[in-house]
Design goal:
Blueprint (H helix, E strand, L loop, with lengths): L2 H6 L7 E5 L6 E7 L2 E7 L8 H18 L18 E3 L3 E7 L13 H17 L18 H14 L2 H6 L1 H9 L2 H9 L8 E3 L8 E3 L5 E4 L6 E3 L1 H12 L17 H15 L5 H4 L2 H21 L12 H18 L1 H12 L3
Antiparallel strand pairs: 1-2, 2-3, 3-5, 4-5, 6-9, 7-8
Length: 353
């Protein structure tokens, strides 16, 4: 790392620098300068094409929370010595520095319903505190990130122009994707429904994007690059996709995939306990759909990439994206199979909110 980066933020060049590896997109380091600790990030310009738009989004959200919810811990970037939110040079790229929250830790895998509850509570709290902020003022950090209509069109394009051998090999999964296209139709209706609000949405609600204290209680949400206008189904859907099953999307043995009802209840409890009346009756009916929406979209994106020769996600072995797609479609099946039971849970948890 070039010493000028640390100096731009007023830090000495002899700081202790340790890589943090939990992030999949940005490069992240823990910086220790005497008794002070910081988190330094290099923004992935291939994913986030307009880093200064991201900085503007974080600044707008930070300003709003400082005025309307000053007690809320929002981890905003530390400015450079010349008062910039991002340090940039052509050789090294775009960098931001954040304070390290004392006593905080992250986890990479949800292992208890209590952790799922805490994460859902804090993602819900973040959205609720910004419910009176005009989401349309935010820049779109990643255009069409959760646009299921577009993802289905890309899938259909891949079937026309992709690798013929891989299309033949994927026939069963392709037919499964097509058989579930009603999920796309529902999304098209949601976009036109005035009862489903466009909100300030995090869009990346995996468990590692919540800071926990040493007692396992949530502190706040982090990794704010994907904050942009969106629907609550993106945040709840991503939690359902990544918290419900004990097996992640890389697991090849699909018998390990399951939908844990106690984890589902914890997510609904945590999110509803803080969002409550901020959600419309129509939105509350879409909680299970939010899981279907995100799981289906991710399965389709993996399969599309496989058919297109792994140009987006890449692959460590030839069938990796095919396995990922099958994994997610199995998770979708498990969710659909338990829909009646999960619906009763939603009714139970939302009847007083």
């Amino acid at each position: 790392m070039a010493p000028g980066i640390l100096e731009a933020f007023g830090l000495p060049a002899e700081c202790k620098i340790e890589p943090l590896t939990s992030g999949l997109i940005n490069n992240t380091w823990k910086i220790t300068a005497g008794n002070d600790r910081f988190v330094l990030q290099r923004i992935n310009h291939q994913v986030f094409k307009r880093p200064f738009d991201i900085a503007a989004n974080i600044r707008m959200v930070d300003d709003h929370l400082k005025e309307h919810a000053p007690q809320y811990l929002f981890v905003s970037p530390i400015r450079t010595r010349d008062h910039r939110e991002i340090y940039y040079n052509e050789a090294d790229g775009h960098f931001r520095l954040f304070p390290f929250v004392k006593g905080s830790q992250t986890i990479n895998v949800v292992s208890t319903p209590e952790q799922a509850y805490e994460a859902a509570f804090h993602f819900g709290k973040f959205t609720r505190l910004l419910s009176d902020f005009d989401a349309t003022k935010l820049y779109v950090a990643i255009p069409d990130f959760h646009n299921l209509t577009l993802r289905f069109r890309q899938f259909e394009d891949a079937l026309l122009n992709g690798n013929a051998n891989r299309i033949a090999e994927s026939k069963l999964l392709i037919n499964t994707i097509k058989s579930q296209s009603h999920i796309v139709n529902e999304f098209d209706k949601i976009k036109k429904d005035a009862d489903v609000r466009l909100r300030v949405t995090h869009h990346d609600t995996k468990i590692s994007n919540v800071l926990f204290d040493t007692n396992g209680k949530g502190i706040c949400v982090i990794d704010l690059d994907t904050i942009m206008p969106g629907y609550f189904i993106s945040d709840v859907g991503d939690m359902l996709r990544t918290y419900l099953s004990p097996a992640n999307e890389e697991v090849k043995d699909f018998t390990e995939i399951d939908v844990r009802e106690d984890f589902f209840r914890a997510i609904v409890q945590g999110y509803i306990s803080t969002m409550g009346t901020a959600l419309s009756a129509t939105e509350k009916k879409l909680i299970i759909y939010s899981g279907q929406f995100l799981i289906y979209m991710q399965a389709m994106r993996f399969l599309t990439d496989y058919i297109n020769n792994d140009v987006y996600y890449g692959a460590r072995y030839p069938e990796q994206n095919l396995v990922r797609a099958g994994n997610q479609l199995q998770l979708l099946k498990k969710l659909n199979d338990k829909a009646e039971t999960l619906h009763k849970i939603v009714l139970d948890e939302t009847k007083h909110s």
